[in-house]
Amino acid sequence: MDFTVFAQQIANGLVNGMAYVLIATGLTLVFGVLRIVNFAHGEFYMLGAYLTYFAGTLLGLDYITAAVLGAVVVAALGVVANKLIFWPLRRDHEFTILLSSLGLALLIANSGELLFGADPKYVESPFADEILDIGTVTLTQQRVLVFAAAVAVLVAVYLFIRYSRFGKMMRATAQNPDGAALTGINIGLVHSYTFALACGLAALSGALVGPTVMIFPTIGNWAVLKGFIVVIMGGLGSVTGALFAGLLLGVIESLGGGYISLGFMEAIGYAMIIAVLLWRPNGLFSTARGLR
Amino acid sequence: MLGRRDLIAAAATLALAIPFVGPSAGALAQQPPIRIALIGPMSGTGAFEGQLGLEGAQAAAAIINAKGGVAGRKLELLNYDDKGSPEDGVSAAKRAIEQDNVDFIIGGWFSAVALSMKEVTRDKIITVMTSSQHPKVTEEGHKYLFRLNATSAMMSNFYSKAICGQIKPKSIAFMNVNDDWGRLELDNYTKLLGECGIEIKGHEFYNRTDTDFTTALTKLKALNPDAIYVAAINTSQGATIYRQVRQTGFRGKVIASAGNMNPKLVELSGNSLESVYSASPFVEDNGQPSMKPWLAEYRKSYKNEPSFIAALGAQGVELIAAGVAGTGGDPRAYDKIAAYLKANETPTVLGNVRFSDQGQATQPIHLVQVKSKQIVAVRD
Amino acid sequence: MLKVENLQVSYGHREAVHNVSLRVEEGEIVTLVGSNGAGKTTTLKAISGLLRASGGTVSFDGERIDRLAPHQVIERGVVHVPEGRLLFPEMTVLEHLELGALRGRPGSMGFAERLRWVYDLFPVLAERHAQKAGTMSGGQQQMVAIARGLMANPKCLMLDEPSLGLAPIMVDTLADTIKSLHASGITVLLVEQRVDLALRLADRAYVLETGRVVMEEAAHTLLADPRIKTAYLGL
Ligand SMILES: Nc1ncnc2c1ncn2[C@@H]1O[C@H](COP(=O)(O)OP(=O)(O)OP(=O)(O)O)[C@@H](O)[C@H]1O
Ligand SMILES: [Mg+2]
């Protein structure tokens, strides 16, 4: 086995995996705290990529500012979506909520097609084509940025959930919503901010991954699919589980594609889900439900 | 309700009423227009291509109409959406023939649509198929059918000679999409390029749904080939691959599959497409007399860059105009027009086109290369 | 101080509480007794805002509170320590107490002082402040639940089956705790399966049966009347 190629494939896998983790974190937060399986999560990823694109092309903002602006705007959209759809439905049947998130996904994707056009677009980033050689491994600055920004954001999110007052409110709500309400936690506020945080994270992933690929209005499908694979593997509602599961998925895809067959790459995710559900239905890294 | 026809009638009346319009223009307006149905994907995945084709055809028609039309009659284009689906293509063709009483049909952007649609138009109406490449479109006998695009065999014949003779890589590796076309490409070019002494280092197949190609490209780069051949039809996948080829640090030659180089790809791929080769019937500086005015008209009216797909739309209109003009001006003299087009070379924006008895065009094909974000012909 | 009038509460289309009226005066201990499924918990949840009443009113210190969210009810000084405790199993004791203080009414004590007071009341919680609630015994969990409620500085504390799952000695300790809380000026609305215990602690009692108040009486009267005990309370 050629070590250079092996190291390169591992590096590729870790970068892709970290992007999956970033996508999955929002998904798992929303499931953990709001008990919503949010099929529209991928659409917020798509919106993040497009807003970054338009902030760059129409407003002339630099890439980083555009990405941050995109994430903030999408977070605000998340607040609106939660207020209009999910909060009023919170006492309804799970299935109703599931369907409405699917409806929201279709609504956003179709409006995206009308507003943005069906043709692919490219999010310009000054880091996209700059190559970094790290030992024998070659990565673009953008890919290093995806990894580094994701690490920074995840550490920040982790510390926030663990130690901040609001983070404690989120965890309490996730572990026992009625108990949280009777403790004096404003559940509506927790739902609203958690949904905003999740949408902002989705948008940020879109803005970061955008310059490594092309964007079009249906890229949300890809994002939500990867997100769900990771969330199911890592355990619904578990942030640390999502971290390990995402990196694992990225590396296994990369090695599977590199040493077995590319045709096999996509199947790996599904195979892993089935294996995990059979062997550890609560996820690979999960010991109990609830946000920890 | 005010329909399109009423609008045209109103416009014609207005034209008559304006005093400085000369007598020939007055006579012109009294003649009914020649009606051409343009059936293409205006929504769905192919919507962008459909739009380009429509724009190209409209630009060509505008030029012809500005010069007084064909045999004293204006060209009128009617647009139909086939949504890229055979069922919608068939119903659009029926509507065009039976309700709208059109004289000609231009369509068949996708092979699947072309194959179904031609059975509705068979021996009834002159039908110009545009970009579809499936051999059966022209193989199965239809006396009024013409197909503009080169078949994949014609393309690979030309392109392999150009790769061997002009690009001259010592070795090559393939990055092909995993479908019928991608596998056929691999077989064709492995054979054709092997025959002229280029070493085949290996290949990778990617999936039609893939969005990241670094794994495959890492493997290909490790083979250290002189050139990487990329077979991609989907513009978005193509652009990602060309970018990622460079992003993995590959510095050799990049060869794009024939017929798949277009301005959108150049726009999306940035500098990664610089000096990448392809083969295309479309080059702007081909010296054809109708090319320059068409480019000017197109750029004046539309924001997209002129492209091969747009040129196919223009060619369809030019072909119909030449056929009617060359046979005395009756748009329904299908036998005469078809015979005329098969017997004579027709000058179009892309060059002089000849047709076989089955209606398959032979188009000039050029080796092209991206230079300073322009697709230009490689001259030897 | 707390006044419930003609309260109606439904789960879906099924009404579980019909026209319940009760009041708790400042400084009282009032108990709500009744057999399983009588609607005691439902009544408390409607007062604390966890359930929305479909009819009737709840007011506290003269202000309507039946349209408020739970955290707003807590801000007014009504705190509900729920049946089953509803703790956060993965969070520490201290985190529970911090969260409990979030909506606390400003009072004479600051956070640190209030924490010390609660730790004095339940010394074991001071020892185990870093332990996760999910790993504690039933009695300790009940202490966490009550302590969490006390951190909000309640004027009126509603306790729903605090003795559930406690060992017999723990039940006595609990009774002492309730007495000392009452002595410190907190009004108590107590729901208890152990009717004897409840009636001994309380000044007045309401007997609830299938969602209706069937009797309101001084606690000692009920305690002394064996017929009533068998008829309504199954003792
Ligand atoms: N979440 C719910 N959904 C539907 N019905 C419920 C729900 N909770 C309680 N009920 C019903 O409402 C009625 C009153 O229940 P509630 O829990 O208030 O009784 P309780 O007096 O507290 O009983 P227990 O002594 O068992 O705690 C019962 O018939 C019960 O079955
Ligand atoms: Mg109860």
Automatic annotation (TrEMBL), chain A:
- Could you tell me the keywords of this UniProt record? Amino-acid transport, Cell membrane, Membrane, Transmembrane, Transmembrane helix, Transport
A biological process (GO) of this protein is: amino acid transport
Please provide, in alphabetical order, the Gene Ontology terms of the cellular component aspect for this entry: plasma membrane
What are the subcellular locations of this protein?
Cell membrane
Which membrane topology term applies here? Multi-pass membrane protein
User: What's the protein here called?
Assistant: Branched-chain amino acid ABC transporter permease
Which source organism?
Answer: Azospirillum doebereinerae
User: Does the UniProt entry include the keyword Repressor?
Assistant: no
Family matches, as Pfam families = BPD_transp_2 (PF02653)
Q: Has UniProt tagged this entry with the keyword Ribonucleoprotein?
A: no
A GO term for molecular function: transmembrane transporter activity
Q: What is its main location?
A: membrane
Query: Member of which family?
Result: Belongs to the binding-protein-dependent transport system permease family. LivHM subfamily.
**Which residues are listed as membrane-spanning?**
18-37, 44-61, 67-85, 97-118, 144-161, 195-216, 228-252, 259-279
TrEMBL record, chain B:
Top-rank taxon of the source lineage equals Bacteria
For this protein, the record's InterPro entries field holds: BCAA_transport, Leu-bd, Leu_Ile_Val-bd, Peripla_BP_I, TAT_signal
What SUPFAM superfamilies does its record include? Answer: Periplasmic binding protein-like I (SSF53822)
Domain Leucine-binding protein as annotated: residue spans: 33-373
- Pfam families given in the database record: Peripla_BP_6
Q: What's one GO BP annotation on this UniProt entry?
A: amino acid transport
Question: In its keyword annotation, does this UniProt entry include Transport?
Answer: yes
Keywords of the record, alphabetical order, are: Amino-acid transport, Signal, Transport
* First and last residue of the signal peptide: 1-29
Q: Which family does the entry's similarity section mention?
A: Belongs to the leucine-binding protein family.
Q: Which PANTHER family match?
A: LEUCINE-SPECIFIC-BINDING PROTEIN, PERIPLASMIC BINDING PROTEIN OF ABC TRANSPORTER FOR NATURAL AMINO ACIDS
Protein name (Swiss-Prot/TrEMBL): ABC transporter substrate-binding protein
Origin species: Azospirillum doebereinerae
**Biological classification of the source:** Bacteria, Pseudomonadati, Pseudomonadota, Alphaproteobacteria, Rhodospirillales
TrEMBL record, chain C:
Every ABC transporter domain range:
2-235
| Example GO biological process | L-amino acid transport
MF annotations from Gene Ontology: ATP binding; ATP hydrolysis activity; branched-chain amino acid transmembrane transporter activity
Keyword Zinc on this protein?
no
Q: What UniProt keywords apply to this chain's record, in alphabetical order?
A: Amino-acid transport, ATP-binding, Nucleotide-binding, Transport
The record's Pfam families line, in alphabetical order, gives: ABC_tran
The UniProt entry's sequence similarity note says: Belongs to the ABC transporter superfamily.
Q: What is the protein name given in its UniProt record?
A: ABC transporter ATP-binding protein
Native species: Azospirillum doebereinerae
